[in-house]
């Protein structure tokens, strides 16, 4: 069996790959083959060399002037671009002179870090993709195909994102970014003998045809990681953290979707103990709501609040997924920090504290005699207030069951959160 790591191209998005690899290291995963395109080729080279600390340091400390002279951080945000308006004339002049951005600082950095002897000593098969220019023919290069003194030049060629970056010339032939042919070279890894692949995408779906393939673990960003030509240093640590959290989930060291929970905190008994009171409460209100308001609900469908959870988790895996879905729903409503990695009991403790603080400053009481009145009252509240009002009703000595049944039918998301938080308390 040969395990391969395949890294996508994506410029400044590459900090994500550094974060994912931290998680792969934590899982003690070793690789026989490492291939990449563009920034994936550069990250892959450092990984194959065993220079992991150097890769992390590079991304944590990278500044624009280490990438290009007279450069600009390109961002799709107009305000961010406007703030750099005085730099544009210098950049344009440099761009014309260099036939692309003047990336000499990046080139020198790559040359200083490139060490092919380390890869050979470690016995790893390394490869990258470039594209001949102007013919646009792909070139698959392994370390064995390269002259040792040209290794760094091939790394530069694979990341020559023309026309933003200038072309790279090796032995009289011009080359540009391998992303013009294949931005995530999974097929290249197969051709080198891979039987198991971990592929790290920097976009939503570079190769959707491989996402569900059983011999591929396909990792992609769970949230926005920015524009590929935005080299603002302050964002790199955030992107590394996103990659790390996504990586932990991909290799089974963590659970969650929007939030991240250490996998070691989940036990069958603990899940059942927390989940069962919530499910009991759902059945108590949802089933009656389905009967009384059947004209809102399709026959033979799931009850309203269970449908909310089912939509959140997709395919059923185990009971912990139901618990994660409702916990994340409540956490999102009460604005829990999704960048932390939680032990589940710590998450619940912080969530209950947040809810209690909101309850102390938000005492909502009203009664509705029919559906129309309820909808009018709810329309004036934000989502937190709706949940808090429902919780007050549920915790009352004489809850208005009919109102709660209407809530289940009309506002299942808010009702699901209220039922869960009530059973916690």
Assign an overall shape.
elongated
Uncertain residue ranges: 76-99, 293-300
Task: Look at the helices and sheets and give the structural class.
Answer: alpha/beta
Helix content: 40-55%
How far the N terminus sits from the C terminus, by CA atoms, comes to 50 Å
Integer average pLDDT = 83
Order of helices and strands: EHEHHHHHHEEHEEHEEHEEHHHEHHHHH
Strand portion: 5-15%
Q: Main beta sheet: strand number and arrangement?
A: 8 strands, mixed
Number of strands: 11
Number of helices: 18
Summarize the structure.
The protein has 425 residues and is an alpha/beta fold. The chain is built from 18 helices and 11 strands.
How do the helices and strands line up, and which of them pair or pack?
Layout lengths: L2 E5 L7 H12 L6 E5 L1 H11 L2 H10 L16 H5 L5 H11 L5 H10 L2 H7 L2 E8 L5 E5 L8 H8 L9 E3 L2 E5 L8 H6 L4 E5 L15 E4 L13 H18 L3 E2 L4 E3 L5 H25 L11 H10 L5 H15 L7 E2 L1 H18 L9 H9 L3 H13 L5 H10 L1 H13 L1
Parallel strand pairs: 1-2, 1-7, 2-3, 7-8, 10-11
Antiparallel strand pairs: 3-4, 3-6, 5-6, 9-10
Commentary on this structure:
- The protein is built from 18 helices and 11 strands.
- Strand 1, helix 1 and strand 2 form a beta-alpha-beta unit.
- It has 425 residues and is of the alpha/beta class.
Which structural traits does this protein have?
425 residues; alpha/beta; 8-stranded mixed beta sheet; 3-stranded mixed beta sheet; elongated
């Amino acid at each position: 069996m040969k395990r391969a790591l395949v890294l996508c191209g994506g410029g400044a998005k590459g900090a994500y790959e550094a974060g994912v690899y931290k998680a792969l290291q934590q899982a003690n995963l070793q690789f026989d083959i490492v291939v990449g395109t563009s920034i994936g080729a550069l990250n892959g080279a450092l990984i194959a060399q065993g220079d992991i600390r150097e890769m992390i340091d590079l991304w944590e400390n990278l500044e624009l002037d280490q990438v290009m002279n007279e450069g600009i951080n390109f961002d799709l945000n107009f305000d961010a671009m406007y703030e750099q308006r005085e730099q544009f004339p210098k950049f344009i002049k440099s761009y014309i002179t260099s036939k692309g951005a003047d990336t000499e600082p990046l080139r020198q950095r790559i040359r200083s870090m490139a060490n092919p002897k380390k890869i050979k000593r470690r016995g790893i098969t390394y490869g990258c993709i470039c594209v001949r220019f102007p013919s646009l023919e792909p070139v698959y290069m392994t370390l064995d195909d390269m002259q040792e003194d040209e290794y760094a030049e091939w790394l530069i060629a694979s990341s020559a994102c023309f026309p933003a970056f200038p072309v790279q010339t090796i032995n009289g032939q011009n080359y540009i970014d391998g992303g013009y042919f294949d931005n995530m070279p999974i097929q290249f890894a197969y051709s080198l003998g891979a039987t198991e692949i971990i592929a790290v995408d920097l976009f939503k779906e570079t190769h959707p045809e491989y996402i569900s393939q059983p011999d591929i673990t396909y990792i992609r960003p769970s949230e926005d990681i920015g524009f590929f030509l935005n080299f603002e240093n302050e964002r790199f640590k955030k992107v590394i953290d996103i990659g790390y959290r996504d990586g932990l989930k991909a290799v089974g060291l963590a659970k969650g979707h929007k939030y991240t929970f250490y996998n070691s905190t989940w036990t069958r008994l603990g899940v059942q103990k927390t989940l069962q009171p919530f499910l009991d409460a759902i059945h108590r209100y949802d089933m009656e709501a389905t009967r009384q308001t059947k004209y809102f609900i399709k026959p033979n469908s799931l009850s309203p609040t269970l449908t909310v959870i089912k939509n959140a988790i997709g395919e059923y895996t185990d009971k912990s997924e139901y618990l994660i879905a409702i916990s994340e729903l409540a956490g999102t409503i009460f604005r829990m920090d999704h960048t932390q990695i939680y032990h589940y009991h710590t998450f619940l403790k912080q969530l209950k504290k947040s809810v209690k603080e909101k309850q102390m400053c938000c005492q909502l009481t009203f009664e509705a005699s029919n559906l129309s009145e309820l909808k009018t009252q709810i329309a004036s509240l934000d989502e937190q207030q709706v949940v808090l009002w429902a919780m007050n009703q549920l915790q009352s000595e004489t809850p208005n069951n009919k109102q709660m049944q209407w809530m289940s039918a009309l506002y299942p998301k808010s009702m699901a959160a209220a039922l869960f938080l009530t059973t916690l308390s």
